[in-house]
Specification:
mainly alpha, Fic-like fold, Arc Repressor Mutant, subunit A, three-stranded antiparallel β-sheet, 5 strands, 5% strand
């Protein structure tokens, strides 16, 4: 089907409201618009350049965790949670009681992402994996009563207090299983000649239109993008996440999705999506360049610790994963005595690697500020 001939779906009359039934997507897609070809080429090139950093940055997996943390914070922010990235990195006990629900949602997001990263090493991206991620996402959080890990069996809606005054009403739950089966087949259909970046753009639109879960659809749908790219080898490591781009362009993001349903303009959504890939990959390259520069500078400082240099490198590996720590964290992770941990942290403060951020004499918290700023 040509993108310009796409008919997004039809509205069905339900009780006191209309729900939108989208067309299925599991078929070949074509387009005549040269702009899409240009953006597709640039996006593919940008991903290739980002992947190059995954090969040249030493111990790349140390730094992926902060990418995941940043994605969890940005994606949750789109949904209205109010948690800064430094708060995400802190222990729950350090979070103000009124912000702990938001903090827990972001922590669940991180757990769901780390789970999927491991699962993709042995299993394909599937509805089953999306359900498992969803179950982790909602566990013990505000959506825990909204069927975690299961496709919905009732109507949901976006905006408004009920379906009759909603901004958008997804398809009736009776159609969800069939639509999600078509969605999964489309992602894995290697008999159709559709570039992966076009495929995942269409896939993300379709997932958000189906809205298969009672809660958490936006976050799962955005994760889907990265894990599809990893599963299909367009990303060597899960180092690209579009949530920050979507959050900074939130109005355009929602308008582009809505425009498909209202005006059948799938081309506009694809162009917006490809621009997001390009911008995010460019930002990712800048971050990795900053990481390389900082790591070289830090390595030169660690050498000055002489006999304690090896222990210093162990602490650095810890900080690259999570740049905010307490003395007890260092004790636990490095398996050293509190006295040794205090001395090592003092060395790191002297070298201007760590800075104490609370101003307290007890229960102090230390931040690797130069690194945190990169994210």
């Amino acid at each position: 089907m040509n993108l310009k001939d796409f008919k997004a779906g039809v509205y069905y009359k339900q009780f006191q409201y209309k729900s939108f039934l989208p067309e299925k997507i599991n078929h070949t897609w074509l387009w005549d618009e040269p702009k899409i070809n240009v953006l597709l080429e640039r996006a593919t090139q940008s991903l290739g350049e980002l992947n190059a950093f995954s090969l040249i940055v030493p111990d790349i997996d140390l730094f992926i965790q902060m990418h995941i943390t940043k994605e969890a914070q940005a994606s949750s922010k789109i949904e209205g949670t109010n948690t800064n990235i430094d708060e995400v990195l802190m222990d729950k006990s350090a979070i103000a009681p009124e912000k702990r629900d938001d903090w827990q949602e972001v922590q669940n997001y991180i757990k769901a992402m780390n789970f999927a990263v491991k699962e993709l090493e042995r299993l394909p991206l599937s509805n089953r994996l999306l359900k498992e991620m969803h179950k982790i996402l909602l566990a013990g959080a505000r959506g825990e009563h909204k069927s975690p890990g299961e496709f919905r069996t009732s109507q949901n809606w976006i905006g408004g207090s009920n379906p009759s005054d909603a901004v958008f009403v997804p398809p009736s739950h009776e159609h969800v299983l069939d639509l999600m089966s078509d969605f999964e087949k489309f992602l894995h259909n290697d008999q159709i000649d559709v570039p992966h970046l076009i495929k995942v753009a269409i896939g993300h639109y379709q997932f958000e239109t189906i809205h298969p879960f009672l809660d958490g659809n936006g976050r799962i749908g955005r994760l889907l993008i990265t894990f599809y790219l990893v599963a299909n080898k367009l990303l060597i490591k899960p180092s690209l996440y579009l949530s920050d781009f979507f959050e900074r362009n939130r109005t355009s993001y929602y308008d582009s999705l809505s425009r498909v349903r209202v005006s059948n303009d799938l081309s506009q959504w694809v162009k917006f999506f490809l621009n997001g890939i390009i911008a995010t990959a460019e930002k990712g390259k800048t971050t990795f360049q900053g990481i390389l520069h900082l790591k070289n500078s830090i390595d030169a400082k660690i050498v000055k610790l002489n006999r304690k240099a090896e222990r210093g490198r162990e602490l650095m590996n810890m900080l690259y994963r999570s740049p905010i720590v307490r003395t007890s964290d260092v004790v636990d992770v490095l398996n050293i005595t509190p006295k040794s941990a205090i001395k090592l942290i003092d060395d790191f403060q002297r070298l201007k690697i760590l800075h104490e951020m609370t101003g307290f004499k007890r229960n102090r918290v230390f931040v690797f500020e130069e690194y945190l700023k990169l994210f």
